[in-house]
Design goal:
It is a single chain. The chain folds into 3 domains: 14-97; 124-213; 218-369, no CATH class. The chain has helices at residues 14-26, 36-48, 53-62, 64-69, 71-80, 85-97, 100-103, 113-120, 129-142, 155-164, 179-186, 195-205, 221-231, and strands spanning 244-251, 265-271, 277-282, 300-303, 313-317, 344-345, 359-369. It is elongated and about 95 Å long. The chain starts with 13 loop residues before the first helix and ends with a strand. Helix 2 (36-48) packs antiparallel against helix 3 (53-62) and helix 5 (71-80) packs across helix 6 (85-97). A hairpin with a 5-residue loop joins strand 2 and strand 3. With 371 residues, it is an alpha+beta fold. InterPro entries: BACK, BTB_POZ_domain_cont_9, SKP1/BTB/POZ_sf. Pfam families: BACK. Residues 83-145 form the BACK domain. One of its GO terms (cellular component) is cytoplasm.
Length: 371
Amino acid sequence: MSQLKSVKLPNISVKEFNVIIKYIYSGKISIEKLENSVIFGLLIASNELKLDEHLQSHLVNNNASWLRLKFAQIYLKSYQVKNFKIIQDFCDNIISKHPKIIFESENFHSLPEDILISILKRDDLQLEEGKIWEYVIEWGKAKNQLPTNLDKWTSDNFLSLKETLKGCLPHISYFSFSNEDVVEKIYPYQKLLEYQLFSDINVKFNIPNKKIPLSSDIITNEHALEISSRIDRREIPYIENNPYEFQLLVRGSRNEFDVNKVSKTIIILKVEGTGEILGRFNPFEWDKNRNLHKLTKDSFVFSLKTANLKNSILCRFDWQLKTEKRCYCMKCETYFKPIRSGKFTSPSGLISEKSLFSVEEYEVSKILPRK
């Protein structure tokens, strides 16, 4: 019966195995003259044979500059291979003091999620939280095919990124951001955050004298204050500190029209050719599956002040208006009812100069109270 056994070691190269064989037979190993890449490969090989501690110490004590040069690769291996404690501690110490060495490496986008999360969990990174957020966003974007221009993103684009980053986002220290970073870095990606978290961030960072940018390409902050005043039926309009957040749900140039099951919304239209800004506040929930009408005193349509319109026009629906005259919108390409009527409680009753018009852009926003 043969005493020979075949042993397969696929992770060990011939050159590395020759060194190991010499060590097994002589009890000696000379690594001073070996290339650093061979030493590191030998380290991985010797780990399988439980001969690794000496090599780890040698690399850390005598070849630290090479470890830094190949840092991303070394750091990744230190977590993938068991018993690399000495190398791993060396890498962790560098990351705490110089985190950009991993965040700005060419291999960062291919870093496994669990390793990225282990970095985010650390509380000793010498890097601003806003910068960490940017790196995490870039890592997630690299995992998805997304438009380069954020203004072209659809709701599905944000959902894809949110799903990719669901393990990372809980480990961001949002309340360590600067006020400027909240506005400039978090607000553009607010759809990635849960509503309550985003509200809590607003509570902490919403300084009264600081204007938070409105996520609209059609209306201004002044327009938003005017709409909010109309919603609250204020005789004296708001001039600052808007009590409502206009959370953009749909933009015509980048989304399909679908806000089903969303209540308390503002629709804003920009008329092609005239620059008119028209809109309607709907306090009820949209429901494309139910063709029905509801009574309300709170809904209104409006035409906002622009360069061509000196004063805004507001029209509330006459409470006695018959049901068949009340406007509603179903999911269709053409909407035949004019956005004007003699049945409005308004001195003018005229919201647009035209009964039929083309829309250059439209937006739908949910109205949320600011805490």
